[in-house]
Amino acid sequence: MTYAVKECFLTLQGEGVQSGSRAVFLRFAGCNLWSGREQDRAMAQCTFCDTDFVGTDGEGGGKFTDAEALAAHVEWMWGEGGERRLVVITGGEPMLQLDRALVDALHDRGFRVAAESNGTLPAVAALDWLCVSPKAGTEVVQRSGNELKLVWPQAGIDPAKIEGWEFDHFLVQPMDGADRAGAMKAAIRLAMERPRWRLSLQAHKVVGLP
Ligand SMILES: C[S@@+](CC[C@H](N)C(=O)[O-])C[C@H]1O[C@@H](n2cnc3c(N)ncnc32)[C@H](O)[C@@H]1O
Ligand SMILES: Nc1nc2[nH]cc(C(=O)O)c2c(=O)[nH]1
Ligand code: SF4
Ligand SMILES: [Mg+2]
């Protein structure tokens, strides 16, 4: 299996329950809900994406011919030290490419393996942490995991209807974009009205990390 990686870098996890944790980010190229081209955005199933996931030309990106080679690249990005190794696999949509061989190869190198997914594809087994972030108008098949992270506001999603899904943590994250202030207010309102939901801020953007 050849993996197409947009970028791979060391940073702090900026979102969700693990926010603040040192992590290697492995961003796969490609998504099933948007081509990644600006001219297609308005017509896409997911229209608010804040990420460039097209191609393999980013920092630490490229094509990797097998799981061992990619796991070695992630380990090199982490550097010295075996303690609390964490890799966050994202994209694009990682479940288009992430397979058991890569999860195993990362585990062999001592990593806890986390993934961020839109939930429209079943998650690969053996993950240590799964974040699902539902997108309005899509069929979410992956309804269990560690955290459900709802980008808000999104017309067409009713928080009450997804509160019963099998997640340990329910997070509401303001939508970054043209109406940042309005999204922040809406997210705070949701967390105030429905105590199951906790506010997730994109901390990396506040402090200027990738
Ligand atoms: C770029 S996506 C990649 C993983 C996967 N495709 C997904 O959507 O979950 C990573 C995370 O960023 C969130 N995200 C994307 N665009 C955002 C925006 N404009 N504001 C806030 N969060 C956003 C997604 O919902 C997801 O939780
Ligand atoms: N620092 C940092 N934290 C993140 N958490 C989720 C991200 C993502 O794009 O999946 C992300 C990201 O792009 N950067
Ligand atoms: S599903 Fe995720 S990667 Fe794909 S366009 Fe939406 S936010 Fe971006
Ligand atoms: Mg991001």
UniProtKB/TrEMBL annotation:
It catalyses: 6-carboxy-5,6,7,8-tetrahydropterin + H(+) = 7-carboxy-7-carbaguanine + NH4(+). [4Fe-4S] cluster binds at residues 31, 46, 49. Keywords: 4Fe-4S, Iron, Iron-sulfur, Lyase, Magnesium, Metal-binding, Queuosine biosynthesis, S-adenosyl-L-methionine. Binds 1 [4Fe-4S] cluster. The cluster is coordinated with 3 cysteines and an exchangeable S-adenosyl-L-methionine. Binds 1 S-adenosyl-L-methionine per subunit. Mg(2+) binds at residue 51. Pathway: Purine metabolism; 7-cyano-7-deazaguanine biosynthesis. Substrate binds at residues 12-14, 27, 90, 210. One of its GO terms (biological process) is tRNA queuosine(34) biosynthetic process. HAMAP family: QueE (MF_00917). Homodimer. Catalyzes the complex heterocyclic radical-mediated conversion of 6-carboxy-5,6,7,8-tetrahydropterin (CPH4) to 7-carboxy-7-deazaguanine (CDG), a step common to the biosynthetic pathways of all 7-deazapurine-containing compounds. Belongs to the radical SAM superfamily. 7-carboxy-7-deazaguanine synthase family. This is 7-carboxy-7-deazaguanine synthase. It comes from Sphingomonas piscis.
